[in-house]
Amino acid sequence: MGSSLADALEYLDSHVNFETAPLRRAAPTLDRMRALCHLLGDPQDAFAVVHLSGTNGKGSTARMLSALLGGHGLSVGTYTSPHLQRINERMAWDGEAIDDESLASLLGGLEAYESHLGVRLTHFELLTAAAFRWFADNAVEVVVLEVGMGGRWDATNVATGSVAVITNVGLDHAEIIGPTRVEIAVEKSGIVKPGSVLVLGETDPALVPIFSSRGAAAVWHRNVEFGCLRNSVAVGGRVLDLMLPSGELTDVFVPLRGEHQGDNAACAVAAAEAFFGRGLDATVVSSALAEVTVPGRFEIVGRHPLVVLDGAHNPDGARALAKTLEDDLAGRWPDVLVVGFTVGRDPGEMLSILGATRSRLVIACRPPSPRGLPVADVVAAAHGLGIEAVGAPSVGAAVRQAVEAARMGDFVLVTGSLYVVGDARTVLAVG
Predict the structure, then answer these.
(1) What mean pLDDT comes out for the span 293-316?
(2) Distance CA 311, CA 375 (A)
(3) CA angle 8, 10, 12 (to 5 degrees)
(4) Residue limits of CATH 3.90.190.20 in the chain
(5) What is the average pLDDT across 383-396?
(6) Of 130-144, 159-173, 221-235, 242-256, where does mean pLDDT reach its minimum?
(7) What is d(CA 215, CA 230) in angstroms, rounded to the nearest whole number?
(8) Which numeric CATH code is attached to 299-427?
(9) 119: number of Cβ within 10 Å
(10) Do the beta carbons of residue 330 and residue 323 sit within 8 Å?
(11) pLDDT of residue 65
(12) Among 193, 264, 304, 413, whose Cα sits 20 to 30 Å from the Cα of 167?
């Protein structure tokens, strides 16, 4: 990164970042974000928006949806968070991350606007405003917009989505938008705009009315208007038969592992149908989804030994990962498990869900985040479960130790946090 981007990131990092220092605001508001966007010429109104929220699966759904919209000839912006290795990953135009020079210019230019407003913005508000400006300047036709946290008070919610997608509702960020699933659902339902189409992946009867009462013109429910009729393991991914409002699509290959990715694909295809207001060309769907990659989600980065990176960072994500091991790897469990968790996670619960008792060795590390759980806590939790475990001073050291400890034919799994996976990708020279 050039010095100008370094300066811009230094300015950005001087602002409160709820990803690394979560706080519950006494009086959450979108007023700052609306004021900033107004000074920028309201760039969020310059393109169509498909808005995504949910506890798990947002990033994968966003990538698949972006591919589908692009495959049908549109210029597509994609805004996601967090990033794995470089902050540029968060905003992409037709699949290409923003370049250093453009990002530096956008962030550098926001300092004067913040000074003019006389308020202190947040890290995420600044990034979101920069993304809106970049997408508007490049005349993208539609933006796939992933919320940072929750929905109702998320900085992205100054945009008006013609389609809203809720993948699911779990107990994540409960200290900020919870503590119950009902309260989390209320926060996530805030992205549903009157007159929009809601693609609702959550099926809990106690939560569905929270979303369906938000005034959407139409609500498409998983397993009613859309869903997977077949979700089968295939070489290198899944083969799906999809039920959609327009009819069925059969034998759709998605090169992603895990049954949950079939569910994410169903959400993505339904959202694309909702956006276009019609059924999609089956050939375009197949070709678009066949090329999708999602770094850090059951990503195979080595074969000898087998090394897999997965960003499962909460209990629901860990359950999905465990099911993927059962289904896609025929019950093969990691011989060496590298884990790092953030504060708020119960390391014993996470290790139990991940089946760590089946591993020969657990190597604990602290995610590179102020919210990283101390290594000693993870090691103690592992010992409490009767697991051999050691600590490492960094993610890099843990990954190197794991590879060195692996025997012929062993399987190494790195998981527990996207921060851990991001550092592991850097250490292993992935991407």
Answers:
(1) 95
(2) 18
(3) 70
(4) 299-427
(5) 97
(6) 159-173
(7) 32
(8) 3.90.190.20
(9) 12
(10) no
(11) 98
(12) 413
Helix, strand or coil, per DSSP, at residue 161: coil
CATH number of 3-290: 3.40.1190.10
Q: Which residue has the tokens 């960072």?
A: 313
What is the residue whose two structure tokens read 């953030």? 342
Contact 52, 34 (CB under 8 A): no
Cβ partners under 8 Å of residue 410, min gap 6: 305, 306, 335, 336
Residue with tokens 């968070």: 81
End-to-end CA distance of the chain: 16
Contacts of 322 (CB under 8 A, 6+ apart): 353, 354, 355
| Residue ranges of the chain assigned to CATH 3.40.1190.10 | 3-290
Peptide bond into 368 cis (omega under 30): no
pLDDT on residue 172: 60
At 175 the pLDDT is: 59
Least confident window among 170-174, 182-186, 387-391, 416-420:
170-174
Tokens of 247: 């009819």
Tokens 């309201």 map to which residue? Answer: 42
Query: What pLDDT shows up at residue 170?
Result: 83
Tokens (6 digits) for 229: 């009729």
